[in-house]
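Please, structure for the following, as tokens.
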Amino acid sequence: SRLLAAGHPVAVFDVRAEPMRELAAQGARAAATPAEAAREADVIVSLVSDTAQTDSIVSGKGGILETLKPG
């Protein structure tokens, strides 16, 4: 929410709908997949609970590697 308050565009993805709804209400773009959230990103921040979740959001189906920009 601080990034949004500072005027930065923010795309969010969460396995739970409620956190995404809250941030979308503040102006974030809710994404259907991690890949969609990463598509236009210059910076990606992820908060995960374990290695399996990291593997899923990075290299799984719909993971950020599908749309990650070079560089």
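Helices lie at 2-5, 17-25, 34-38, 51-59. The beta strands are 11-12, 29-30.
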